[in-house]
């Protein structure tokens, strides 16, 4: 989690080797909204079926 230059909150999901595997793609005006978004992403287990 970090605050960008526009004072919006963003997140990055990193692999244990430090590689970024996902990011918020958008800024959130409130930190708690960004926290909720990353929790939703982390809730999906590896190997979950991909939907299109």
Helix and strand arrangement:
Blueprint: E1 2-3, E2 9-10, E3 12-14, E4 20-23, H1 31-43
Antiparallel strand pairs: 1-2, 3-4
Say what the CATH topology is. Double Stranded RNA Binding Domain
Please, what is the average pLDDT? 88
Question: Which stretches are poorly predicted, pLDDT < 50 over at least 5 residues?
Answer: none
What is the overall shape?
Answer: globular
Short description:
The protein is an alpha+beta fold.
Task: Please provide a written account of the structure.
The protein is about 25% helix and about 20% strand. By secondary structure, it is of the alpha+beta class. The chain has a single domain (about 1-45), classed as YegP-like (Double Stranded RNA Binding Domain). The strands form 2 sheets. The chain has a two-stranded antiparallel ribbon with strand order 1-2. A two-stranded antiparallel ribbon has the order 3-4. Strand 1 and strand 2 form a beta hairpin. The radius of gyration is 12 Å and the shape is globular. The model has no long low-confidence stretch (mean pLDDT about 90).
List keywords for this structure.
52 residues, alpha+beta, Double Stranded RNA Binding Domain, two-stranded antiparallel sheet, 1 helix
């Amino acid at each position: 989690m970090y605050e960008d230059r526009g004072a919006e909150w963003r997140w990055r999901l990193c692999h244990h080797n430090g590689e970024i595997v996902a990011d918020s793609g958008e800024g959130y005006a409130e930190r708690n909204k960004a926290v909720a978004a990353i929790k939703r992403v982390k809730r999906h287990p590896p190997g979950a079926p991909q939907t299109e």
